[in-house]
Design goal:
434 Repressor (Amino-terminal Domain), Hyaluronidase domain-like, 4 domains
Length: about 475
């Protein structure tokens, strides 16, 4: 199968096969076989191709070849091959230190490859422990090797190394942000805060790497927004959201900008500034149109924008049903297997839960519970599908509130959901989720002021 990207890289330089082969140190027939897909370059040949063509293995269409060649090389050493299979950290570090030319596309592809590895099915408790340890090490790598810190920029190493390691670190932090452990959220927040000063300095001073650094800075600020809401508060999170929007515009990264506007929308909603929330998500709608796209947008991302707009319309007393229909239509749109950047965690589960939010505001309790059951087991309250813990907890509290608003106001149902939300908020050390369950408890007290079971719940409300 002909390798179009490899051919294009040579043609862009107006080199004949013979001229390119001479620079690569091989004969023209060998290069022809590589371009025609009749033979695969060895690992050191891939390194030379990246160097001569000033491109990454992915940009040359050789990334999968590189992985196969690496695996074959490791297979010659039985001990090393076994270690690669069992040591997740080593597998991830191999990706970070592969030869490449840094670009926005390369960094995006690196994050996607890391995501695929991290989302492989885990079968044992030891797998979960190893995965968590690997995430911690990858997130902390830029501090150990590049001496980054939150106090100021550190540019003692080549910019290419800084961007690559920060891209990998951000990917690890996104996965840590979905954890049920408060310490993981805190570590992710500290790490992205430590990357930012150096990334901002590169945006300011480097014309060559400005966009790539701005993309990573925007991702860091977006993570600060999400985690800052839980660890610090609304005021701080809003400042981070503004930075996320600023850097995503600087990077001309449409998916990142849409995600930043989405996060800012929720912040304004939590602050009960519903008109501002609706206005903010409306700003994302034109970005979904083909003419505005610089990068491809996934149907999931488009669907999430429409479903969140439906929630904000409902909170403003408007009919969100047309927006929900648009969200469902977006999910039916054909989609290529396009790479996604680390910050996009939108799934079909999110859109189902958004529909449940709208149903809450419409007072449709039976429909809320039906939507919930598609994503979270109504008995065990365990997520059936991958879902960030902070989202699961917020959903459980929302359902408890919906029960209180329902016609029958079933106390047992309300307590069932509320207790799980409280336990999750405490374990996560989330200021936002903890304050939400307190509000729900006050509503339960108002409804059943003399009910002993309700008064006894107060003893469970202990902040970490």
């Amino acid at each position: 199968m002909k390798r179009e990207r490899l051919v294009a890289a040579r043609v862009r330089r107006h080199w004949t096969l013979e001229e390119a082969a001479e620079r690569l140190g091989v004969n023209a027939n060998t290069l022809y076989k590589w371009e025609a897909g009749k033979a695969a370059p060895r690992f050191y040949n891939i390194q030379k191709l990246c160097e001569v063509y000033e491109a990454s293995a992915w940009e040359l269409g050789l990334d999968m070849v590189q992985e196969v060649v690496t695996s074959q090389a490791l297979a010659t050493n039985e001990a090393l091959s076994g270690l690669m299979q069992s040591d997740l950290t080593l597998r991830l570090l191999v990706l970070v230190f592969e030869p490449h030319r840094v670009s926005c596309q390369h960094l995006q592809h690196l994050q996607e490859r890391i995501r695929r590895i991290l989302e492989e099915e885990l079968t044992t408790e030891q797998d979960l422990i190893s995965r968590r340890e690997a995430l911690h090490r990858l997130a902390l790598l830029p501090f150990a090797t590049l001496h980054l810190n939150a106090l100021g920029a550190s540019l003692s190493r080549p910019i290419e190394e800084i961007l690559t390691q920060c891209a990998a670190g951000v990917a690890a932090c996104w996965h840590l942000s979905k954890s049920a452990e408060g310490s993981d959220l805190a570590l992710a927040f500290r790490c992205v805060s430590g990357y930012l000063p150096t990334l901002k300095a590169i945006v300011k001073d480097s014309s060559q790497y400005r966009r790539a650094a701005a993309t990573l800075a925007g991702q860091c600020a977006l993570l600060q927004t999400i985690l800052g809401l839980h660890l610090q508060g609304l005021k701080e999170a809003e400042q981070y959201a503004q930075e996320a929007v600023t850097y995503s515009r600087e990077a001309q990264d449409i998916p990142l900008l849409v995600s930043a506007l989405h996060s800012a929308t929720w912040l304004y909603s939590y602050a009960k500034r519903y008109q501002q929330a609706l206005h903010t998500i409306e700003q994302a709608i034109p970005l979904l149109k083909p003419k505005s796209r610089i990068a491809p947008l996934s149907p999931l991302l488009c669907g999430r924008v429409y479903s969140v707009r439906a929630i904000m319309q409902a909170k403003n007393g408007q009919d969100g049903t047309p927006s929900l229909n648009l969200a469902k239509e977006a999910l039916l749109a054909p989609s290529d297997d396009e790479p996604c950047f680390a910050g996009v965690e939108f799934t079909a589960s999110n859109i189902v839960l958004d529909e449940a939010h709208v149903q809450c505001y419409q007072g449709k309790l039976d429909e809320v519970l039906n939507s919930l059951s598609q994503v979270i087991d109504p008995e065990t309250l365990v997520a059936k599908l991958p879902l960030p813990e902070r989202v699961r907890i917020g959903t459980l509290n929302d359902v408890a509130r919906a029960v209180l608003k329902g016609e029958h106001k079933e106390m047992e149902h309300a307590i069932h959901f509320w207790r799980a939300a409280l336990e999750g908020a405490v374990k996560l050390h989330s200021e936002q989720r903890f304050s939400e369950v307190l509000v729900t408890y006050e509503s339960m007290q108002s409804l059943w002021p003399r009910e002993k079971r309700i008064s006894e719940l107060r003893d469970l409300i202990i902040r970490w």
